[in-house]
Design brief:
By secondary structure, this protein is an alpha/beta fold. Helices cover 34% and strands 29% of the residues. It has helices at residues 40-47, 88-98, 103-116, 132-144, 162-177, 189-195, 213-219, 233-237, 262-269, 285-298; strands at 2-11, 14-24, 28-34, 55-60, 63-64, 73-76, 150-154, 181-185, 198-203, 206-212, 223-228, 242-248, 251-256, 277-281. The strands form 3 sheets. It has a 6-stranded mixed beta sheet. It is globular. The two termini are 34 Å apart.
Length: 299
């Protein structure tokens, strides 16, 4: 288990992270979210041992993370961190041997992963000659080449087309099912919802929301109703409990204060003609994120 306990980080007088605590268990994908500058990258660097903490403790399997423990950690950074003048094979040999692998181990695992990601033919190509998407594949391969116990993924789908996003998703879920610990960070809330049962949102280095995604959604009172049919936006807005109405194509999205107001909207809709759809949905994580982060910036 990874345990981050009351961790604080100062850069001089600047407070980057304040009293941060969370746990990631084996076979769990944990979402660490925040806008740019929230403290995510600082946290990742402290976990990997690249930065010292000012206060608090970080342990992996109840042991402090030192140089030896970093061999158990894989880190896919948001920014490109490849040596682009090297070939893919040269990059893998350099990185793998830093992680304690032999040359034979590197080559065997590299071939397996290149084939898994459908880029075996690029093994002897220089990284700078590859497309942005294929460079992202290589960067992911470097992060998992040594079969890490803890995997940190920061915007892993950057530069990928939809087909390759699905390929990455499959590999990430395979790692989860093998019992790895995964920290997942993305500005795409739909991706976070797909992977993460637990999450934490940082704003200016402080935790503003944490817990299981299901509980967070249950506690968030607002609901959405999606309607297709002969209804009118101005009439929907007059209904008690309705906060906002948007039209997306042929669908109306009605945002209400809480589920007790569903009946008010339903009573109006059932009197209208040609109603093809009336569905009450939980709020999206994107809505919750925007509201919680916005509230924190207003304080």
């Amino acid at each position: 288990m990874l345990k981050v306990d009351n961790v604080t980080k100062y850069y001089g007088d600047f407070l980057a992270v304040k009293n941060l605590s969370f746990e990631v268990k084996e076979g769990e994908i944990f979402g660490l979210l925040g806008v740019n500058g929230a403290g995510k990258t600082t946290t990742f660097r402290m976990i990997t041992g690249l930065l010292d903490k000012t206060e608090g403790t970080i342990t992996l399997d109840e042991k402090p993370i030192d140089y030896n423990a970093t061999d158990k950690i894989g880190f896919l950074t948001e920014e490109r961190s490849l040596l682009t003048k090297l070939t893919v094979k040269e990059q893998a040999l350099f990185y793998g041997q830093l992680k304690g692998m032999t040359k034979n181990q590197v080559e065997t695992e590299l071939d397996r992963l290149l084939e898994r990601f459908h880029i075996l033919e690029y093994k002897d190509r220089k990284i700078k000659e590859l497309s942005k998407g294929n460079q992202q594949k290589v960067q992911f391969i470097m992060a998992i080449l040594h079969s890490p116990k803890l995997l940190i993924l920061d915007e892993p789908f950057s530069g990928l087309d939809p087909i390759n996003v699905e390929l990455f998703k499959d590999v990430i879920l395979e790692y989860k099912n093998e019992g790895r610990m995964i920290i997942f960070s993305s500005h795409r809330m739909d991706h976070v919802e797909y992977f993460c049962e637990k999450l934490l949102i940082l704003v200016k280095g402080e935790t503003v929301l944490e817990g299981k995604l299901k509980n967070i959604k249950d506690e968030y009172k607002k609901k959405n109703i999606k309607i297709i049919g002969d209804v009118k936006k101005d009439e929907l807005l007059k209904i008690d409990g309705v906060l906002k109405v948007e039209k997306a194509g042929i669908e109306y999205i009605v945002n209400i204060k809480e589920k007790n107001y569903v009946k008010n909207v339903f009573d109006y809709v059932k009197k209208q003609n040609n109603i093809e759809k009336f569905i009450v949905e939980e709020p999206t994580l994107n809505e919750i994120f925007i509201e919680k982060v916005g509230e924190s910036y207003e304080k």
